[in-house]
Amino acid sequence: MTDTTTIVFLLFPGITQLDFTAPAQALSRMPGAILSGAAANLDPIATDSGFAILPTHDFASAPQADILCIPGGHGVTDALNDPATIGFIARQAAGAAWVTSICTGAFLLGRAGLLRGKRATTHWGYTHLLPLVGGRHENARVVEDGQVVTSGGVTSGLDFALTLIARIKGDAVAQAIQLAIEYDPAPPFPGGHPDRAPEAVTAGLKARVYDAAAARMEAALTIL
User: Fold this and answer.
1) CA distances from 34 to 22, 56, 165 (A)
2) Recorded GO terms, molecular function (predicted)?
């Protein structure tokens, strides 16, 4: 890489904003970083949080990424079968040094053929679907397999970003950025993953949200 690092985030309707904004905040502080948010057009992108994000580029004008970042969100199910979106991912990945995803963005990488035979992770509610796009699930918050780096759900994006910054600029730079954004997790509960959450909490959330959401994702993945 040169002294500058071009980082391109895919933006799409229904994106989980923290999948984008958390790693973007850390990566933007990496020396030489230039961030772009690319979407099908320059219209505001509706997020899952009730506000919109403005893209900096459309697919045609987006710069070639050194780091390609694909966030997740419930909008992934629609994006999976949008040829323009998948084509953009594939073209960008061909010239990128790093191809990455946060949360269910992994399935967009997979749809573009980028997870075949790769170890990968995604949000815990969807990990069983990774084989549908050629991935092999590894139970970790951040999974590196060559140039492909995937991360778990939502807040894992910060861990992913700091991990990647360390790979590119060294541990000291990553540690300084972690300190600057005061990323010193001390959550009020120890249950941020089913491995540690109370079983009743996990079962209730799956029944309310993730059983149906995973079924929608599976249906979208099986459309050819």
Assistant:
1) 16, 12, 13
2) cyclohexyl-isocyanide hydratase activity
